Amino acid sequence: MTGATTDTLAPLTVADRCDRCGAQAYVRVVLPVGELLFCAHHAREHAHKFESVATHVQDETARLHAEHGAGAGAAN
């Protein structure tokens, strides 16, 4: 993956919501024609689909684990 780096992308905030379910987003997927935001659960679920087309993936799930514990964002 090439393109934007985490230095040029703003950190994700509580206002950034998952495009699948509306939960707080911890992953930004930059595509050639836009971007998608995912919660940790949906980022893991769809990673195999976006990894081959993304120009950059901003993964802040480590922050999720630091804020809410190791079980946070786990699939139900």
How would you describe what is shown here?
By secondary structure, this protein is α+β, with helices and mostly antiparallel strands. The protein is 25% helix and 18% strand. It has helices at 40-50, 61-68; strands at 27-31, 34-38, 56-59. Strands 2-1-3 form a three-stranded antiparallel beta sheet. The radius of gyration is 12 Å and the shape is globular. It starts with 26 loop residues before the first strand and ends in an 8-residue tail after the last helix. Residues 1-6 have low confidence and may be disordered.
Topology:
Elements: E1 27-31, E2 34-38, H1 40-50, E3 56-59, H2 61-68
Antiparallel strand pairs: 1-2, 1-3
The largest β sheet comes out as: 3 strands, antiparallel
Give helix and strand order, one letter per element, not per position.
Answer: EEHEH
Helix amount: 25-40%
Proportion of strand residues: 15-25%
Main-sheet strand order equals 2-1-3
Number of helical segments?
Answer: 2
Gyration radius, rounded: 12 Å
Low-confidence stretches: 1-6
Structural class: alpha+beta
Spatial shape = globular
Mean pLDDT: 86
**First CA to last CA: what distance?**
30 Å
Number of strands: 3
Please name the defining characteristics of this protein.
single chain; 76 residues; alpha+beta
Q: What's this, in brief?
A:
The chain is of the alpha+beta class.
